[in-house]
Specification:
Length: 409
């Protein structure tokens, strides 16, 4: 009976915070509405196990309302951006430091406030967590000396949560180790839940904020939404000189039963077009960007050029595996003609090359059809694959578990 007033107070604090978040940021507000918040008196401040967000009600009540919103967003982003599962075999402390720096940078740049003592590193907070972690690990003299690590550990000690006995969970705080109670299937279900929540939040933000996502979220989208397609296979099909000759095959793929000839990378060129017309929202752009990373990581030394295209074309932007993707340009109608016109100006037909166009497929096609090999990567719900007048078409799917492939004559 004595716990009831505290529970009521906690519920009221959470409800009020959710209402404020929905008004201030449709993106964060949507994520918050899809999060389960649990009152937990056995942790000093706040924690997440990647599934739920745990908050000490007394700590929450002690904060000004602006900081209450900030701490909620902090824990929500750790969970929604899959930081517990993305840790893999990395050092837990440094991973936590990297994740906190990136999350805190996103929160503050979005105009929210955090309780005192949050980790900041303005140089690292513009990166993905993986990139920030590698800098922390590799540049010990500047970022990760023993004294700094100890200082970071003490700074976030109030967020560590070894147990929460009044709930049937074991929140782990910001060390972000996945809950041992979750098996592989449960982790996959959890990841699917947060991916769907992020897509829903991005879709709502695109309709209420002119397509603008909070700072840093697009970078994290690239890490969360892994490419669907096996680009090593697709690029091999287009770029090898003699696909029926099995001399000199790539030995890396023998274990997969794939006798893939090694690419002649000195002459292999990939022209990538991203549809940035008004019909392609931020969620679809995030899926496209993840496929670009897959393309760049498929083979070393590919010559890649990126173009953004609506009814005009923007670029080219030379790309490598270490490139930072430029911000998208566009937002108008859709015509595929400008991209292929631009490619025709530079492509030498003696060079092995392929155009990869990521689009919903609704637009004006060039006539006559260009002679360069073309692969269309089509959004869920996009144009029927059989209606592409040239090249080959493959569809991305919603559940990201498989893909379908059709050939267009």
């Amino acid at each position: 009976m004595n716990d009831r007033p505290a529970t009521v107070d906690f519920d009221q604090l959470i409800s009020a915070s959710l209402l404020r978040l929905r008004t201030k940021s449709p993106f964060f507000g949507t994520l918050a509405m899809l999060t389960r918040f649990v009152s937990c008196t056995t942790i000093p401040c706040a924690a997440t196990d990647g599934r739920d967000v745990f908050l000490n009600p007394e700590f929450l009540k002690s904060l000004p309302t602006a900081q209450q919103e900030g701490i909620l967003i902090h824990e929500i982003l750790h969970a929604a951006l899959l930081h517990p599962s993305r840790i893999r075999e990395r050092d837990p402390l440094l991973w936590n430091v990297a994740a906190d720096i990136v999350v805190n940078g996103t929160i503050l740049e979005s105009g929210f406030e955090l309780p005192p003592g949050g980790l900041r590193d303005e140089r690292l907070e513009q990166l993905s967590v993986e990139e920030a972690y590698e800098l922390l690990r590799g540049d010990e003299s500047e970022h990760a000396d023993a004294a700094s690590v100890r200082q970071w550990q003490l700074a976030d000690l109030d967020l560590l949560a070894p147990s929460c006995e009044d709930n049937r969970h074991s929140p782990i705080g910001t060390d972000l180790t996945p809950s041992p109670k979750l098996d592989r299937h449960q982790r996959e279900v959890l990841a699917a839940h947060w991916r769907q929540a992020l897509q829903q939040a991005a879709a709502i933000a695109s309709t209420t904020q002119g397509g603008k996502l909070p700072a840093g979220i697009e970078r994290e989208f690239e890490s969360i939404f892994a490419p669907q397609l096996d680009w090593r296979v697709y690029l091999w099909r287009y770029l090898v000189q003699t696909p029926t000759d099995f001399q000199g095959f790539d030995r890396r793929f023998i274990g997969q039963g794939l006798y893939l000839e090694a690419l002649q990378c000195t002459s292999a060129r990939v022209y990538i077009a991203i549809d940035t017309s008004g019909s392609v929202d931020r969620t679809l752009l995030a899926l496209f960007m993840s496929e670009i990373r897959g393309i760049l990581g498929a083979y070393p030394h590919l010559e890649c050029e990126l173009y953004y295209a609506d009814c005009d074309v923007y670029g080219p932007y030379p790309l490598s595996i270490d490139s930072t993707l430029p911000p998208p340009e566009g937002g108008g109608g859709t015509s595929f003609i400008p991209f292929f016109d631009r490619v025709s100006e530079t492509w030498d037909e003696h060079t092995q090359a392929v155009c990869i166009y990521l689009t919903d497929g609704y637009g004006e096609f060039p006539t006559p059809a260009p002679t360069i090999p073309t692969l269309w990567v089509v959004t869920p719900g996009g144009l029927d694959l059989a209606r592409f007048p040239f090249g080959e078409a493959i569809r991305l799917i919603d559940d990201r578990a498989r893909s379908t492939f059709d050939r267009v004559d």
